[in-house]
Hints:
39% of the residues lie in helices and 19% in strands. The chain has an eight-stranded mixed sheet with strand order 1-2-4-3-5-6-9-10, with helices on both faces. A two-stranded antiparallel sheet has the order 7-8. The protein is globular and about 50 Å long. Helix 2 crosses helix 11. The chain has helices spanning 27-30, 49-57, 83-97, 108-120, 139-151, 159-169, 200-203, 209-222, 240-249, 265-268, 270-281; strands at residues 5-10, 16-22, 34-38, 62-65, 101-106, 125-131, 186-189, 192-195, 227-232, 254-258.
Amino acid sequence: MSTAKTVSFRGAEGLTLVGDEWNRGAESAAARPTVLMLHGGGQNRFSWKNTGQVLADAGLHVVALDSRGHGDSDRSPQANYSVETLCADTLEVLDQIGRPVALIGASMGGLTGILVARAAGPQRVTQLVLVDVVPRYEKDGSARIREFMFNHVHGFDTLDEAAEAVASYLPHRPKPKSPEGLKKNLRQRDGRWYWHWDPAFLTKPGDDPLIRVEKLEQAAVELTIPILLIRGKLSDVVSSEGVEEFLRLVPDAELVELSGAGHTAAGDDNDAFTDAVVGFVSR
C-alpha cells in the first residue's frame, strides 16, 4: 500500500500550497496521467483521503491539494480567493508537477478545474471530473453552505459540539461514532475549535455571479477532453435541471448520479464515488 507524503508547491503571488502526494516516481504511475484533486470551499485535502488512497493503490500518481486559505496552505493577505486566482494557483502547481494531469474538482474545486483545463489545454489536463458542480448551480443550496460556514465561524467549545453541527447540516450521512476525525478539519486555539480555513474567504466581495456563470459555461463548452459529472441525487446545489443544461452545452460529458449522496458526494457514498472516479481516470 502506498503512503501519502506531505509536499509543498509554490502558488500564485508567492503563496505556499500544501498537498498530500502518493506514488511520486513510481514506474507504474509514470505511464499514466497524474491525478490532481481540488476540494470544495471550506474543505481541505483530507476530504480526498480515501479516494486518493484507492487511486494510489491502483498505481496512479496522486496529489490532493489544499487550496489557498484552506487547510495548511497559506492564507492570502489580500483575501484574494476568486476562482481566477485559484486557477492561477493550480496552473503553477501543474508546472511543478511537470506531467499531464487528470483533474478532479469538487464544488469550488470543480469550477476552478473548468478554468484550469481550458487555460492549460488538453496536453496538460487530459480529463476532468466535476463533483456535484456545474456553472449554473442552485443559489439556495449555495446559500445554505455559506450560512453553515458563517454560523460557526467563531468556533466550537468541543469536538462533540462541532460533530452535532455537522450532523444537523448533513442529516442524510450516518454520524461517526467518534468526533476525532474532525481534527483534520478543525484547529484548537485558546480552548476553542475553529474550522481550518480563512474566514475572509466568506467576506471578500466577488464578481458579478451572472458574468461568472457565463465565463465558466463558455470555458466548459470549449473543452475537448473527456468530462465526467458526478452528482449526488440528494444535492440541493446541483439540480436535475442544472445537469440537463450542462449536458446540453457539453453533450459529450458523462453523468454518474449517486442515489444516497448529497453535495458532499465523495464523503456521502465514498465507495460508489471512488468506483466511478477510478473507472474514469484509469481508461
